[in-house]
Design a protein that fits this description.
It is a single chain. By secondary structure, the protein is α/β, with parallel strands linked by helices. 29% of the residues lie in helices and 27% in strands. α6 links the parallel β12 and β13. α4 packs across α5 and α7 packs across α8. The longest helix has 15 residues.
């Protein structure tokens, strides 16, 4: 290789057998790329909620501290003994993390496809991104336009593909509009902009006036604050007006899915659906795709009998739509990287910062408008 890769490092997350969570920074021996592979020097890796599930979800955050573990700098936290059963399959396993990112191709295999990427800034996905260098198949690297910074390509997979996936699902299942919870998130703002562009009715559910303003400024008409009095009647009115019968719920636990289905049933009646003792004949569906509330999902009465609640994950969805559609979605994400799918970051940190207890507490908050970018090359 012509590029110096001798000081490469990576982050590991481990649940130990004695009930500790360890995030450690360790040396990484970068393998020689095969003919069809390239080596990407990572310059921009976001911390997504899906990443936090692997990074810090086992941790009791009030116990985090800095230690040296097996000679490596590390963040250590206690795991609640009651939660160890959930993480039993992780015990003793060092796991790499980071779903997506971007960087510069600094070494390449002998194939024409690999050599064509040498020196280019690319956006990539495939896990194990919290490291200074990532070896990838050339076919999985999407080049950014000439002159584009790595930061522009850091978050072009998880959220942009999810937003597009929600709309794929809506169209495939024959719905007319969407409901989205935690709707002022980075993903929620992308979905809002995409719905405006596509003319898709969206009912957005938030929890504060500040979050409501974010979405109304993007042109969303129906933005409802679930903490306010009158939330349910307003939700019924919005659903009756838009005809939305498909919801995507990031909250998961509690009664939000039930509220949405109940309001959809009442909205169907308001729109003139034929009466039946079994409820309206309009199919109502909520997909849970996140667990901001890790408690039980509670469903009440008044839903009718024509409804569904299920889980939604990006990877199975992409497998379902196929490689051709997936690549169309990825190219559209690159095209709209500074528009619909632009991500704003509140801070930029290094790999070592990721194991700083105070910084970890900040990026674990998952606060709206505080998306953190990691630059492993710092």
């Amino acid at each position: 290789m012509s590029h110096d890769l001798t000081d490469a490092k990576q982050l590991f997350t481990t649940v130990t057998n004695d009930g500790k969570l360890v995030l450690s920074i360790e040396p990484y021996a970068v393998p020689e790329p095969k003919d069809h592979e390239v080596v990407v020097q990572m310059e921009a890796v976001p911390i997504n909620p899906s990443d936090l599930g692997l990074l810090l979800s086992p941790a009791q955050m009030d116990t985090i501290r800095s230690e040296t573990v097996d000679g490596h700098p590390a963040l250590v936290a206690d795991v609640d003994p009651a939660m160890m059963r959930i993480f039993a399959s992780r015990k003793g396993k060092k796991l790499a993390a980071g779903n997506e990112g971007a960087g510069k191709v600094v070494a390449a295999g002998a194939s024409d496809a690999a050599q064509a990427l040498l020196g280019k800034t690319v956006t990539i996905v495939g896990g194990e991104m919290y490291r200074t260098h990532r070896v990838m198949p050339a076919m999985m690297c999407v080049p950014l336009p000439e002159g584009a910074a790595a930061k522009e390509g850091a978050s072009l997979f998880v959220n942009p593909m999810t937003a597009q996936g929600f709309i794929n699902t809506m169209r495939a299942e024959g719905h007319e509009g969407l409901v989205h919870t935690a709707a002022a998130s980075n993903l929620g703002q992308m979905l809002a902009k995409l719905c405006v562009k596509e003319g898709i009715p969206l009912v957005a559910i938030v929890r504060s006036d500040a979050q409501k303003k974010i979405l109304t400024d993007l042109g969303i008409t129906h933005v409802l604050d679930s903490t306010k009095d009158g939330f349910m009647p307003s939700l019924v009115d919005a659903l009756a007006e838009t005809g939305a019968t498909l919801g995507f719920d990031a909250i998961g636990g509690g009664k939000m899915a039930s509220y949405i289905l109940t309001a959809m049933e009442q909205a169907a009646a308001k729109r003139g659906a034929e009466f039946s003792v079994y409820g309206s004949p309009i199919h109502k569906q909520v997909y849970i795709y996140g667990r901001l509330d890790t408690g039980e999902t509670i469903l009440g009465g008044g839903l009718g009998l024509y409804w569904g609640v299920g889980g939604w994950l990006l990877t199975p969805h992409l497998e379902k739509v196929g490689m051709e559609r997936m690549m169309e979605m990825r190219m559209f994400a690159v095209q709209e990287r500074n528009g619909i799918f632009n991500s704003a970051y509140s801070s930029e940190i290094s790999l070592m910062d990721m194991i700083n207890p105070e910084i970890a507490k900040d990026y674990d908050k998952k606060a709206t408008g505080e998306k953190v970018l990691v630059n492993p090359s710092l």
